[in-house]
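Forum > Structural Biology > Help requests

Title: Can anyone predict the 3D structure of Protein-tyrosine phosphatase?

Hi all, first post here. I have the sequence for Protein-tyrosine phosphatase but no way to get a structure on my laptop. I'd be grateful if someone could post the C-alpha cells.
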Amino acid sequence: MNVLFVCSRNKWRSRTAEDLFKDSNFHNVRSAGTAPVARIKVSEKLVSWAEVIFVMEKRHREQLKSRFPLVLNEKEIIVLNIPDEYGYMDDELVELLKASVSTYLEI
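Reply #1:
Sure, ran it for you. C-alpha cells for Protein-tyrosine phosphatase below:
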C-alpha cells in the first residue's frame, strides 16, 4: 500500500512519519508539505500515487481537496490532529504517530 504523510513544511511532522514507517514490509511511504516553502511539495503525482493519505491537521485536508479535487475523489484522507509543536523525531511526536497510525496500518 502506498501511504503519503502531509503537513505544512515537510520538515518535522510528516518527515518524522515517513522516516518512522519507511522500512515497513507492508507499505511504501512518502511525505510532502502544503506550503510553498515545503522541503518536498505535495503534487498531483504524489496524491495520485497514494492509496491512503494522512494529514496532520484539518486544514491540510482542506488544502488538498481544494488543490486536487479530481485526484482525491476516491482517496482516503485521515486527519491525525497533531499540532505543529514538535521537532523532527521528537519522542512525543513519535509516540503520537505510532498510536494514531497503528489504527489504520500494520506497523
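The radius of gyration is 12 Å. The first helix runs from residue 13 to 21.
Shout if anything looks off.
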